[in-house]
Amino acid sequence: MNIKIAAAVVSLGMAIFLCSCSEKDSGNSGVDSSSVPDTTTTTAATTTTEPETEPEPVNTFDLDGFEMDVAKSLGDNNSLSLAAMIDCDALSYGSDKINSIDIKKITDDRILLMLGYAQETENSSKKLVSLDKTTYEVKAELDYKSNTNSIPIFEDGFVLINSSENHHEYTIYDFDMNIVGTFESTSYNEYQFTDTNTAYYWSLSDLFRYDVKSGKSEKISDSSEYYVSQFTKASRIEGNDIIIMNTVEEDHEQHTAVLNANTGDVMYFDSNGYLDILNGMLCFDKYAEDYSTEYTLYATNKSNAVKLTFDTENYYHSEHSDGDRIILYTYNDWIFRFELFDISENAVIGCFTLDAHELIPDEEDARKKLGVDSDYDMSYDLEPFVSNDTFFLDDDTLVISFQNLVGYKMYVTWDISMQVGFESKIVTSECDDIESCYDESSISQLYPILQPSVVSEEYLPLREKADKIAEKYGIEILIENEAIGFMGNYVLKGRDSNPYATDPYSSLSSALDSLDRELARYPEGFLEQISNDGCNGFRFILTGDIEGIETDDAGGFKYAIDGIINVVISSLTPDLSSVLHHELSHAIDHYVEEKLEGTFEFSEGWNKLNPEDDIWYIDGEATTEEIYDECYINDLDPSGAYYISYYGHTNATEDRATIFSEVMTPDDYLQTDFHKIPFIKAKLNYYADCIRLAFDGSENWGELPWEKYLDS
Question: What's the whole-model pTM score?
């Protein structure tokens, strides 16, 4: 191993400890007697004592499967070496077999490793191991379930996040695996951290900052100017917490935006592209008309953005960079090409190509692992790809991790200081036309921003009416000025939004009457049992028009978020009862599938009731004879119908919702005779049986409208 490569491996820490593992004698402590102090003493009779034996190191690794005796130079590039080739299937940690190892963090004094156990169980575990960077001694370790959603890691520790449905648990650790804080949240999405004490989350249409130590939240978005429709990412850039989000503006369109959480400033990007944060830098891929990358914009702030274009296609970004340096690479016909771009210098500072065949392990060993003979083509299994733990050791040394499908991991070191000339395929340019990249002019002033507030004095009698209904059924009801704003992919508009609504007050009053009447048709306690994605309880929002954002307008929709199931209905719709039961069916449907999971094949049973050639709602339209509404309109025999409407043919959930709302048609409306549509009746009865199975106390329900065909 040459001196430079040895230095790189020493900096890596983990690789040097891998070397020591392959060289150590497990029966020898490795103590040199010349380093032991002389303990000879003199008495009347001269005697000597044997040197005291130093204790064995505590928690030393026993990792097998490394080829680390000699580092291997790659190609004709003196700056490139194969530092380690690891057979992950041959790894062990103590008495445990492990099948993966990843370097998650290197700080001034610690190396954080992630080990994956080779367990054949659904709830397999992983282990985080904290090593002393100098001695490679294990300082601490932590076992956790591999289904943990994420582990954001920072300079002073990490956060273990366990999520289930709408519930998230956060445990903050230092690198000695000491717990320094815990808290929980019930938001739809988990919190995103920028350090171990600062997290951000999205609730309905606003962003909030959460301080872990104080337990206090602070709103950071400005809903007087925009609604937050999606929260994508939070990261720290040059000391500022930067949020990538989508907003809904005055034009009721969605826009990609970046919020500086420290200053409140918002900047907008052209929507025709993909925006991300790569280790301290904004990265924006601008797409051309054919969806190829027209250029990529990098910036730590708006003033120093740099545009990159490429004279080749299929460039990839590494997930890791360092300060203001970006790793980009291509891969074609077994040839990797890496380029390192420095944004501060506005130039590519290093480049190498690598034949992937040089990263192939012994083929015979790989064949034995897979249990295949010589006729089997191993090229696909052995072909390496870039792994996710690529990082800088120092200003000069980059470690790139590769792996393949056979279970090998290869660490390649790249010494940038040894670079001797190169030809870059990246073209850089100043961002003189920066404003065209950050397109703020696209936001038009068409409508005032909708702000939910208390009901107006005129509507106070209806507020009292809504309160009585809400208390009766144990629900929430929002009306008039309370029921406007943004939710999901829709804008909920006010009572004056529809010029054709001649008497919105009467429409809302009638909507409340319909809500009261139709909810009374469900068994007592029925709604209280329903949960969707961890959300419990119902909030009924009776709004004006419901305008879709990049989707069709709607008469209603269901949206489970922040601990409650929202059923939004336009009080102006002429068929409110049908919309109500349709959206309630979506909530029932979700609950039934969740409740019966693992005990009853709900979806499989449903699919068997579809036509044999349409079991999965495949692409293509159903025939006219398979759609009940079409048969009714065209005076055709409906006995061959499988779906209520074309909309019911969209997917299984809409199929059930259209059937359920049809059977729930109020008595004073035209009734559908399900005896004439036997295939749809079979679906209805199957759904009714599954509802009985899922709900507790169903034996006390009595007669129900959706069960009237069960015994016929």
Answer: 0.74
